[in-house]
Design brief:
The chain is mainly α. It folds into 3 domains: about 160 residues, MgtE N-terminal domain-like (MgtE N-terminal fold, Alpha Horseshoe), CATH 1.25.60; about 100 residues, CBS-domain, CATH 3.10.580; about 170 residues, Tetracycline Repressor, domain 2 (Orthogonal Bundle), CATH 1.10.357. About 70% of the residues lie in helices and about 5% in strands. Strands 1-2-3 form a 3-stranded mixed β-sheet. The chain has a 3-stranded mixed β-sheet with strand order 4-5-6.
Length: about 475
């Protein structure tokens, strides 16, 4: 195990230990609250109140040393809503905004629903304008108005600007905290200017150079600023052909550029090439992490804001649409089977072998779907390369179909001793693998073409195709070759 893996493991153990410690404190607090209720008279009530205050103070002392991301980690893993609310109550108002930024959407929405409007205003008063803009979609409308009214004119304009950009664009991810200089000043002037700042943006690896009209003309890298003569002009050492993003560029393009060129930050300009903000590596990593965490949910039709410990009714309603679609597809598959009821009655072994055909097709299709979703996300698939992908996947399915079809045919022959049935089984598996490969290619493409996330529900649709077509091919061949 490498050093980085050891550090990750130690860090994870520390978080788990913190979670166990806070759960123990919450359990102790609840126990003493129950005792206090039972002893609601006289000295027993006083002792109970003192113990409850002591436990609350201990919980406050424990959380005050924690990073907002670690508090969010604990909140997301508390299965009891009362425990979440009890922990949330001890978080100071000036720290709640930072915790809300780190929380999963489902948990964040649940906590915000319990907060009075004034508490929401206080929580957001310590956030930057880009962070407030990120939280606004989760806030009640009346709270949004109250939050906006507390901002100065500059911050209010920045929040409105960020909200004007569509989701999944660079403009919705950028930060306004940056350092700009003119191109007609010397390095010494820039250094004095930086020293006057009480704090610099994090991370800070470059200064953005703008002209008189606010148009970005270049970037001044920190290493160039520190290694050149103070009398040098900024225009002499700045990089004029730096990588620049537009506010309306897709966020996925920015992710690929950061990965390809190992960027720490990059300037963002508007349609008039005026400097609008800066995109940091942290925002890119957050997007990558969110996509990685949410893709398994999307593939089975679940919302990305699904809370593992949400109330049963709320979670159930989130799953109804795709369960309804799954029911419709299952009914279609059952009607395919029903059409061959007479065949199954005469050859009972068909009922035992049908699931194998569907399962093999499903596995093949899921492999192709995963590759297609990745290819679409990375923009590796064009109109020219699509046919290359189709030929490759069909060829792989044909090779696998012949090999595994032959193996399954031999196994079936050993079980039932019927050569014709074994042949039907082998051919059906081979054909269904070809169908699954084609479905795995075209389902994500179709979803992408209609503006839907290719990962959203692909598995449900693929299962419908492989089950229905697998049953149709298998039972149809059986009807023709065995009973025909």
């Amino acid at each position: 195990m490498g050093m980085d893996e050891q550090h990750v493991e130690l860090y994870q153990r520390s978080l788990e230990a913190t979670l166990d410690e806070i759960v123990a404190l919450l359990d102790k607090q609840q126990l003493e609250r129950d005792v206090s209720i039972r002893q609601s008279q006289g000295q027993g009530a006083l002792v109970g109140a003192l113990l409850a205050r002591q436990q609350r103070s201990e919980l406050e002392r424990r959380t005050v040393r924690m990073h907002p991301a670690d508090i969010a980690f604990v909140l997301e893993r508390l299965p009891d809503e009362d425990e979440r609310n009890a922990l949330w109550e001890v978080i100071p108002a000036q720290r709640r905004g930072g915790v809300l930024l780190e929380l999963a959407e489902g948990v964040r929405d649940g906590l915000i629903a319990t907060m009075p409007q004034q508490d929401i205003v206080e929580a957001t008063s310590h956030l930057e304008s880009d962070e407030i803009a990120w939280l606004v979609p989760s806030l009640p409308m009346d709270a949004v108005s109250a939050v906006m009214s507390q901002l100065d004119q500059s911050d209010r304009s920045q929040v409105r600007e960020m909200l004007s950009y569509p989701d999944d664009t660079v403009g919705a991810m950028m930060d306004f905290d940056m350092v700009t200089v003119r191109d007609d000043v010397d390095v010494e002037v820039v250094l004095r200017y930086l020293r006057r700042h009480k704090e610099l943006p994090e991370p800070f690896d470059q200064v953005f150079v703008i002209g008189n009209d606010g148009v970005l003309v270049g970037v001044l890298r920190l290493r160039d600023l520190l290694t050149h003569d103070p009398d040098c002009s900024v225009s002499e050492i700045m990089v004029r052909d730096a990588l620049i993003f537009s506010t309306h560029d897709p966020a996925d393009e920015a992710v690929r550029a950061f990965e390809r060129y190992d960027l720490v930050s990059a300037p963002v300009v508007n349609l008039h090439r005026r400097l609008a903000g800066v995109l940091h590596f942290a925002e890119v990593m957050d997007l990558i992490s969110d996509k990685a965490e949410n893709q398994p949910l999307k593939q089975v039709g679940l919302d990305e804001d699904e809370d593992l410990f949400a109330p049963v009714l709320r979670s159930a309603t989130h799953r109804w649409p795709w369960l309804g679609l799954n029911l419709l597809t299952a009914l279609v598959a059952s009607r395919v089977i029903g059409a061959f009821e007479a065949t199954i009655q005469q050859q009972v072994a068909l009922a035992a072998l049908m699931p194998i055909v569907a399962s093999m097709g499903g596995n093949t299709g899921n492999q192709t779907v995963a590759l297609m979703i990745r290819g679409i996300a990375l923009e590796q698939i064009s109109s020219a390369s699509l046919w290359v992908v189709i030929r490759k996947e069909v060829s792989i399915a044909a090779v696998n179909g012949v090999m595994w079809g032959a193996i399954i045919a031999l196994v079936s022959l050993g079980f039932y001793g019927q050569p014709t049935l074994s042949t039907v089984m082998g051919v059906a598996v081979a054909v269904n693998l070809l169908i699954a490969a084609l479905a795995g290619v075209f389902i994500p493409l179709a979803l992408n073409a209609v503006g839907r996330d290719p990962a959203h529900g692909s598995s449900v649709l693929l299962t419908f195709v492989t089950d229905s077509m697998g049953f149709l091919v298998f039972l149809g061949l059986a009807t023709i070759w065995i009973l025909g």
